[in-house]
């Protein structure tokens, strides 16, 4: 007997398996595309957001320093270009268009938009000079596809950040524990003190940040003394604080009466501040001062040292009657050497030119970058106090605000002479606790990031 077999059902099953295999393979490719391209997109999205955040903060700093919108756009763009040149951002650098920027327009380049607003929320773009909030946006940044085209997946990314002045700071917790006497006449000081009031200090002017050891005199305009804050007791604590250590207990408020340290603590001041130039006691490690915890500035250049006279005052050019000679172009005095010749010291202009890369007047020190270096370590936020009727020694001084002074040179020890020379840059905010009271007013604030109401990614 002949048995006939029907093989058609098997052929139908073979076709169904092929369809199922194709669907399964496509599904695997979709999962692979989502994993590979999605992860790749999120990684670069985070990197892009970090770069935009930094640029917005930089623009906010320019605005706080009374810069123009043109200058803020320029500063933000230059920092963005610099950050995208890092190796980890090399892919972004190749797809973000930053060439031929137009700093007069909200749309600076094809991808980059920089706008300004009177308020961070709602952020309403406005071209009025003097408003304090900025938004930096990078739009339509296309990323490389791996499998994303299979499912028509759009790998274009964007990032935005809003930055500007914080609510007024009620308490400073990251200051250099030095106090400088206000340089104005307290009888004419406005009350309340407006934001940015300079207390009589002149931009680009040099000041003795700390008087020479062993000298006893009345405290006057521009004189500095070590400040005693809660949590800092004695020379070792002062040394660490001047090197950059801070404690929560050191928070002070405008209007507080804060004691100054008795004596000049020459060793503590010298060793603490000189860590910012990469110098550490006994090569590092003593009393906790080391290059890992107390990084040097990327720029440690100094020029010809500025000197002081026998009275502990800056050695500057003077007329025959002893009055200082002011530079008519800048309205500042000129430091001189012992023979009366002009000194080519390392100014904040030298330091700031090219973002701290200028070699002008660089006689001692160097300019390098690395993991154990931080830019800006030579800029000190220092308390401004009311020294009316005070003398050198232990005092209690009323806090008026904070000013930023640039260390033009290392602190030199010559016998019992020990002094710190700083150039006044501007009144500045310092890191601290902001007030929760909307009616609170002070003359200090800081630059912070705000959530962009138009972007869930900020």
Question: What key attributes describe this structure?
Answer:
elongated; 458 residues; 2 domains; 18 strands; eight-stranded mixed sheet; Tad_N; Pilus assembly protein; 22% helix
Which structural class is indicated by helix and strand composition? alpha+beta
- Gross morphology: elongated
Mean pLDDT: 78
Assembly status: single chain
**Strand tally:** 18
Topology, element by element:
Elements: H1 8-64, H2 69-84, H3 90-95, E1 112-117, E2 133-142, E3 156-165, E4 169-172, E5 176-181, E6 206-210, E7 224-226, H4 234-243, E8 257-259, H5 266-274, E9 296-297, E10 326-327, E11 332-333, H6 348-352, E12 373-374, E13 379-386, E14 396-407, E15 412-414, E16 417-427, E17 432-434, E18 447-450
Parallel strand pairs: 5-13, 9-12
Antiparallel strand pairs: 1-2, 2-3, 3-18, 4-17, 5-7, 6-16, 8-14, 10-11, 13-14, 14-16, 15-16
Helix pairs in contact: 1-2, 4-5
Please summarize what this structure is.
The protein is an alpha+beta fold and 458 residues long. It has helices at 8-64, 69-84, 90-95, 234-243, 266-274, 348-352, and strands at 112-117, 133-142, 156-165, 169-172, 176-181, 206-210, 224-226, 257-259, 296-297, 326-327, 332-333, 373-374, 379-386, 396-407, 412-414, 417-427, 432-434, 447-450. It folds into two domains: 23-168, no CATH class; 170-434, no CATH class.
Description of the molecule:
With 458 residues, the protein is an alpha+beta fold. It folds into 2 domains: 23-168, no CATH class; 170-434, no CATH class. The protein is 22% helix and 21% strand. A hairpin with a 4-residue loop joins strand 10 and strand 11 (332-333). Helix 1 (8-64) packs across helix 2 (69-84) and helix 4 (234-243) packs parallel to helix 5 (266-274). The longest helix has 57 residues, at 8-64. The chain is elongated.
């Amino acid at each position: 007997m002949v048995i006939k077999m029907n093989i058609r059902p098997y052929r139908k099953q073979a076709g169904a398996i092929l369809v199922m295999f194709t669907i399964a393979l496509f599904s695997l490719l979709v999962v692979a595309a989502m994993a590979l391209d999605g992860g790749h997109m999120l990684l670069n999205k985070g990197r892009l957001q970090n770069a935009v955040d930094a640029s917005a903060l930089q623009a906010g700093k320019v605005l706080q320093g009374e810069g123009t919108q043109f200058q803020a756009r320029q500063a933000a763009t230059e920092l963005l270009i610099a950050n995208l040149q890092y190796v980890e951002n090399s892919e972004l650098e190749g797809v973000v268009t930053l060439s031929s920027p137009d700093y007069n327009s909200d749309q600076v380049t094809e991808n980059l938009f920089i706008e300004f607003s009177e308020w961070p929320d709602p952020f309403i773009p406005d071209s009025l000079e003097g408003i304090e909030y900025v938004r930096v946006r990078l739009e339509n940044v296309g990323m490389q596809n791996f499998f994303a085209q299979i499912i028509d997946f759009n790998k274009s990314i964007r990032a935005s950040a809003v930055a500007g002045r914080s609510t007024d700071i009620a308490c400073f917790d990251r200051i250099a524990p030095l106090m400088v006497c206000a340089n104005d006449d307290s009888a004419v000081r406005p009350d309340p003190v407006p934001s940015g009031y300079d207390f009589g200090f002149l931009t680009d002017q040099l000041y003795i940040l700390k008087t020479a050891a062993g000298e006893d005199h009345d405290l006057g305009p521009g004189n500095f003394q070590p400040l005693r804050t809660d949590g800092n007791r004695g020379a070792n604590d002062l040394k660490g604080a001047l090197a950059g250590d801070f404690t929560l207990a050191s928070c002070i408020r405008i209007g507080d009466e804060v004691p100054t340290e008795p004596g000049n603590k020459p060793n503590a001041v010298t060793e603490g501040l000189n860590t910012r130039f990469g110098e550490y006691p006994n090569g590092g490690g003593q009393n906790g001062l080391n290059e890992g915890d107390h990084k040097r500035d990327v720029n440690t250049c100094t020029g010809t040292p500025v000197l002081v006279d026998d009275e502990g005052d800056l050695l500057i050019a003077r007329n025959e009657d002893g009055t200082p000679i002011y530079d008519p172009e800048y309205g500042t005095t000129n430091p001189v050497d012992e023979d009366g010749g002009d000194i080519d010291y390392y100014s904040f202009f030298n330091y700031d030119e090219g973002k701290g890369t200028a070699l002008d007047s660089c006689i001692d020190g160097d300019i390098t970058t690395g993991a154990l270096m931080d830019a800006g370590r030579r800029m000190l936020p220092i308390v401004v106090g009311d020294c009316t009727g005070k003398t050198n020694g232990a005092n209690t001084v009323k806090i008026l605000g904070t000013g930023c002074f640039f260390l033009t040179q290392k602190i030199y020890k010559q016998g019992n002479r020990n002094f710190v020379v700083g150039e006044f840059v501007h009144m500045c905010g310092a890191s601290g606790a902001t007030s929760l009271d909307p009616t609170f007013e002070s003359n200090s604030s800081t630059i912070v990031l705000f959530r962009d109401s138009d972007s869930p990614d900020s």
